């Protein structure tokens, strides 16, 4: 596709557990099997970048490198140790809804012909911004349903200094459990937690009993009033704000509650939630059993289903 527009969506299985190591990278890192996988990711992305450059496409190609969630803290054992990554100063990890360790992921953009090298954008953005960004770059001006994301190009090109995300809504499964507010008159980024997962054992930083944090019932604690943090001054979410320590405490909770109501008003009603022909600004519930049920007949299969095996036959050269 070097001579025509293309979209390459390339999902790596590396770093996600279980960890498999290619012989060429086994033992290459001082950080065990996880580090070996990371070394291989670096090599793979390097080969893709080299190919784009060799084809003379660099100045006309936007590359975006990211992840879908933070490290899986509970995935460890006595032989290998930590298998699921590390989240630095950020609390929590994969499947923990609102905690930063599960939300903050790498976001690296490369476009030599359009984006300045080495520029750092320290503003709240979302993976939901990628679709409207690509829609803009494709010059697609057709009306769309209500979107939660924004075109990132003005921010990436330095034409604006602030993200369009004044509020961002974070979910644990189908449950809204945290909201961040980036006031227009402040550098602060406030975040409220309506409920948080119950870490186990007490004092731990993850759900080591269930191996992954759950989002309902006895697995969570609801907070009234919500927990409140200022991510600009406290990115590790270790110092809870109170009316005594934060002058805008009541305002933050009030503004956040209003934002949640506006957010919920964009949801489809019960009468049209299962209607394929629902209004253009509505969307079907993606967390229903119909949507998340495993469909083995859609899986890659070498052979006759269900007798699948994906080892290639060894043929003489």
TrEMBL record:
InterPro entries, A to Z: Alkaline_phosphatase_core_sf (IPR017850), Sulfatase (IPR050738), Sulfatase_N (IPR000917)
Domain Sulfatase N-terminal: from-to ranges: 2-134
Cofactor or coenzyme needed: Ca(2+)
Transmembrane segments: none
Coiled-coil regions, chain positions: none
Pfam families for this protein: Sulfatase, Sulfatase_C
Family from the record: Belongs to the sulfatase family.
Protein name as catalogued: Sulfatase N-terminal domain-containing protein
Protein species of origin: Xenotaenia resolanae
Species lineage: Eukaryota, Metazoa, Chordata, Craniata, Vertebrata
């Amino acid at each position: 596709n070097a001579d025509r527009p293309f979209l390459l969506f390339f999902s790596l299985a590396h770093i996600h557990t279980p960890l498999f190591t290619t012989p060429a990278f086994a033992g290459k890192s001082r950080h065990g099997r996880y580090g070996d996988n990371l070394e291989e990711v670096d090599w793979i992305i390097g080969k893709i970048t080299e190919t784009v450059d060799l084809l003379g496409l660099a100045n006309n190609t936007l590359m975006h490198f990211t992840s879908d969630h933070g490290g899986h803290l509970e995935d460890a054992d006595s032989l290998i140790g930590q298998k699921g990554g590390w989240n630095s100063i950020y609390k929590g990890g994969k499947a923990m809804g609102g905690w930063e360790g599960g939300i903050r992921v790498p976001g690296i953009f490369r476009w030599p012909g359009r984006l300045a090298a080495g520029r750092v954008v320290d503003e709240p953005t979302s993976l939901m911004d990628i679709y409207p960004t690509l829609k803009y770059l494709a010059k697609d001006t057709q009306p769309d349903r209500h979107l939660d994301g924004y075109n990132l190009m003005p921010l990436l090109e330095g034409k604006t200094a602030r993200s369009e995300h004044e509020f961002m809504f974070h979910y644990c499964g189908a449950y809204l459990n945290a909201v961040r507010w980036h006031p227009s008159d402040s550098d602060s980024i406030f975040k409220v937690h309506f409920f948080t997962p119950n870490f186990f054992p007490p004092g731990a930083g993850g759900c080591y009993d269930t191996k992954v944090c759950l989002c309902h019932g006895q697995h969570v604690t609801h907070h009234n009033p919500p927990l409140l943090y200022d991510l600009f001054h406290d990115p590790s979410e270790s110092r809870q704000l109170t009316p005594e320590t934060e002058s805008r405490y009541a305002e933050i909770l009030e503004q956040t509650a209003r934002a949640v109501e506006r957010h919920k008003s964009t949801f489809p009603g019960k009468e049209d939630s299962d209607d394929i022909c629902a209004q253009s600004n509505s969307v079907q519930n993606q967390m229903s059993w119909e949507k998340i049920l495993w469909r083995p007949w859609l899986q890659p299969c070498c052979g006759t289903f269900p007798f699948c095996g994906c080892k290639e036959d060894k043929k003489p050269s």
